Amino acid sequence: MLGFMAVTGFFGLHNLQGLDIALFPHDEIYRFIPTHLTVQITSRRRFLPYCLLKLQIESAEFQIPILGRRETIRSKLLVSFPDRGPGRISRIIVTSTFPVNFFVRSNTVSVSADYLVFPEPVQLPSGQVSGGTEKRGDALSPLKGGGGEVEAITTYTGQEPLKLVHWRLSARHDELLVKELGAEAGAPVMINPDELPGKLEERLSHAVFLVNSLMAAGKAVGLKLSDRELPPGISRQHRLKILGELAHHVAD
Fold first, then answer.
1. 229-233 and 219-224 as β-strands: parallel, antiparallel, unpaired?
2. What spatial distance separates the first Cα and last Cα of the chain, rounded to whole Å?
3. What string of DSSP letters covers 71-101?
4. Count of Cβ atoms closer than 10 Å to residue 26 Cβ
5. Whose CA is closest to 98, among 68, 65, 73?
6. C-alpha span between 183 and 208 (Å, rounded)
7. How far, CA to CA in Å, does 111 sit from each of 24, 71, 90, 91?
């Protein structure tokens, strides 16, 4: 019996070693809203496969029945983050019941995956259309619109209407892809979270909702904070920069 336990213990621990694991968080993460996290697992083994692995990452679990020698697999996990702002995933817990189902053995794999959580988008209370002040200026091309030519194909984030989903490309790539269309320009808008209703977190959530909805409607959007100002812009990178400022924002 002791010999059996020793042998199974050896193979069980060996089954948890020699794994390379990398995480790739999405660049658009919102508080409380489940988002995809890409995990890549690579076997460094030359001979034996891995069996019955379970990875625990934050609030998500991912099971791998078998991982072949020198094999690399990628998968997407739905993870929800309760706090806005920057964060880092520094470890992954790997468990297995291999080779017998009597014991669960575990190993901790160190990783370094930085991410940034934006405030949860929340629509303004009824009767309030905008908390920002519009500026007069030249017409600008929108980030995303409802008409015009296709300008880019990007990953679906949950903010785009389903009519923009490119179903044929999505089927090929095993993920939802959307078309970014040109549209008629709108007057630039400056958003000031301090002018929005509610406490700090509510104001930031309303500001995120305004940024996304206004830019989706074809308006260039800027951000006004107490100590700095971002001029109106139209690109996805500009939108993420504004959302990042809101994610880092603290009360004065």
1. antiparallel
2. 67
3. -EEEEEEEE--SS-EEEEEEEEEEEE--S-T
4. 15
5. 65
6. 21
7. 11, 19, 5, 5
**Closest to 19 measured CA to CA, from 121, 82, 96, 123:** 96
Contact 225, 200 (CB under 8 A): no
Q: How many other CB atoms are there within 10 angstroms of residue 192's CB atom?
A: 17
Tens digits of per-residue pLDDT, 164-181? 788 877 777 777 887 776
**Model confidence pLDDT, tens digit, residues 21-62:** 999 999 999 999 999 999 999 999 988 899 999 999 988 999
Q: Which residues pair with 149 in a beta bridge?
A: none
Q: How far apart are CA 193 and CA 202, in angstroms?
A: 9
As a whole number of angstroms, the distance between CA 118 and CA 124 comes to 17
Please say whether the beta carbons of 94 and 53 come within 8 A.
yes
The residue among 153, 148, 164, 135 whose CA lies nearest residue 233 is: 135
Please name which of 89, 93, 90 lies closest in space to residue 53, comparing C-alpha atoms: 93
Token pair 């078309």: residue: 179
- SS3 for 12? helix
Helix-, strand-, coil-residue percentages of the chain, each rounded to 5: 20, 40, 40
